[in-house]
Amino acid sequence: MPSPLFADRPAQPPEPGAVDALISQTSRLRGEVDAVRRDAAHDDDPQLRWQRALCDLAMHQLDELRAQFGQLRDGAPAATQPTTHPADLSPEDDASVFDGSFTSHAGAAYGEAPVSTGSLLTRVGSAEWNLLTDEVSWSDELFQIFGRARERGPMSLDEMPTMVLPEDQPRLQAMVTDCLIDGKPIDGEFRIVRTDAAVRTVHMTGEPVLDADGCTASMWAVLRDVSELRRSERAVRESRDSLEHSRHVERTERRVAVELQEAVLPPWRGSLRFAHDGPAPLDVAGHYLPAASTDLIGGDWYDALTLPSGDALLTVGDLTGHGVAATSSMAMLLGALRGMAVAGIRPGALMGHLNQLLDSSGQPALGSAMCCRYDPVAQTLVWAQAGHPAPLLFRGGTGRPLRRPEGVLLGATPRVAYEETETRLRPGDVLVLHTDGLTRTPGAVGDEAGLARLLALAPRFAEARDAQECLRSVLEEFGEETREDDACLMVVRVGS
After folding, report:
1. CA-based angle 187:193:197, to the nearest 5?
2. Closest CA to 336 of 320, 311, 319
3. Mean pLDDT computed over every residue of the chain
4. In this structure, what are the phi and psi dihedrals at residue 161, rounded to the nearest 5 degrees?
5. How far apart are CA 367 and CA 488, in angstroms?
6. How far apart are CA 223 and CA 204, in angstroms?
7. Does residue 193 sit in helix, strand or coil?
């Protein structure tokens, strides 16, 4: 049995100045939280929705805390004290009492009409049930919480369950029984149905008041309407679940995109030699560079293969978009390109077929591409492009872009012709084929600066022993940069 408690024991009120300081700190903190909440106002982003829900919850908790500090400063109201409305408050009182507008947002977010309960102080009431005299004392705030008319009088402990939801009645009865019989303090929640049919969540704390013999003489309790607070907590949970689901989807899509990309791009790592029987075989090395954000797996590709005629196919390209849609479209396009090249279709006509394929695809997209066909016997490079950077030719310690034939982006215009151009290569020449993500500098207009840096590597290419060494030089220059888009790079060195 707990030690005797007396309802008339003297209270030691806190210093008013100290409580006022706490009220001011809480008000200032609430304003700062509200500023953060306004910054997270875009509901289309799961992470911002979660941040906003957390801010709403914090604001409700601060509202409750500030109101409780106000009660602590002003002292407990008498049971017969008339209800105080915000309009009747003095400027000093206004520091501890809010209007109900702060608590309506969470309910409205769930399609529920906000319940006007006046100030936050009207959402905290007190009651005492005297077991010896059967007298019941309710504060005016408790009548407002329950939506009960003052003239009907307070409810006894036997009457209270009639306003409680059936599934919560056992919880209330257990709390009251534990308090009256075993002398245990009360601390729990239950839901009530007000006389206006509104469902509210009430948090009840209390304790028995014992007489001199240690027997329960009465039960005293404080009841608080925590409906908006619980709605805010529910909003946090649901927004967190939505955020976790969104992140799970993103991780799954990224894994699928990476696996699809790895399955489609050439499996070779390091240098690969083509046309071994020709007088000028090719030494090829390729690399994929991801964007700064690892979530952005795009539709860039590079490819090289020997054709049945003995020629070599060299191609790089870039589709708009990211994720599974971009990589699946890239896989479709690269598969069609390989098939048409093996069938002997020349680069210009091949670009036209790819344009028609992308234009009629179920997943519309734009893409840039370059397709080269190298004849090791004639040592000539025939190529066409669709809105793509030209290959860079490095010879004798200097570099320059090749002249671009005409060609618009893939998927931009149906039934368009693509020009071809021919370049004769020499032993020792180095070709660099890349997508525009390699040389594009964040915040810069155009890619001239990146292109100049790439051309400045010409002396190092002249001293390189193979294509892989040239590739390493490019990666040393560009590999650690923070790029906005992913990129593909292929270095081709003509052997002697």
Report:
1. 155
2. 319
3. 80
4. -60, -20
5. 14
6. 4
7. strand
The whole-angstrom separation of Cα 460 and Cα 242 is 52
CATH code for the structural domain at 265-494: 3.60.40.10
DSSP 326-393: HHHHHHHHHHHHHHHHHTT--HHHHHHHHHHHHHT-SS---EEEEEEEEETTTTEEEEEEES-PPPEE
Strands 272-274 and 282-289: antiparallel
Better-scored residue on pLDDT, 83 or 232 = 232
Six token digits for residue 187 = 């601390």
Q: What is the pLDDT of residue 95?
A: 33
Q: What's domain 16-239's superfamily in CATH?
A: PAS domain (3.30.450.20)
What is the rounded CA–CA span in Å between residue 251 and residue 257?
Answer: 10
Neighbouring-strand partners of residue 289 = 487
How many residues comprise the chain?
Answer: 496
Contact 438, 289 (CB under 8 A): yes
Cα–Cα distance for residue pair 431/415, rounded to 1 Å: 30
DSSP labels for 401-437? EPPPPP-PPBTTSSS-----EEEE--TT-EEEEE-TT
pLDDT band at 8 (very low <50, low <70, confident <90, very high): very low
Instruction: Give pLDDT tens digits for 106-125.
Output: 333 323 333 333 344 447 88
Q: Are 289 and 489 in contact (CB under 8 A)?
A: yes
Contact predicate 100/118, CB 8 Å: yes
Question: In the 8-state DSSP scheme, what is residue 283?
Answer: E
Residue 115's nearest CA partner among 225, 256, 234 is 225
Please give the structure tokens belonging to residue 392: 């860079």
Residue 184 has a CB neighbour count (10 Å cut-off) of 14
* Sheet with 301-306, edge to edge strand ranges: 301-306, 312-319, 367-375, 380-386, 421-424
Domain ranges of the chain: 16-239, 265-494
What mean pLDDT is predicted for residues 488-494? 93
Tokens of 360: 């009629």
Q: What are phi and psi of 146, to 5 degrees?
A: -85, -5
Burial string for 331-364 (b: 16+ CB within 10 Å, else e) reads bbbbeebeebbeeebebbebbbebbebbbeeeee
Quick one: tokens of 86?
């915000």
Q: At which residue do the structure tokens 């790079």 appear?
A: 489
Q: Name which of 354, 273, 339, 285 is nearest 312 in CA terms.
A: 273
How far, in Å, are 130, 193, 307, 441, 492 from residue 346 at the CA level? 99, 79, 12, 34, 20
Taking the C-alpha atoms of residue 107 and residue 117, their distance in angstroms, rounded to an integer, is 13
* Segment 126-147, tens digit of pLDDT: 899 998 899 999 999 999 999 9
Query: Are 65 and 33 within 8 A, CB to CB?
Result: no
Amino acid at 434: H
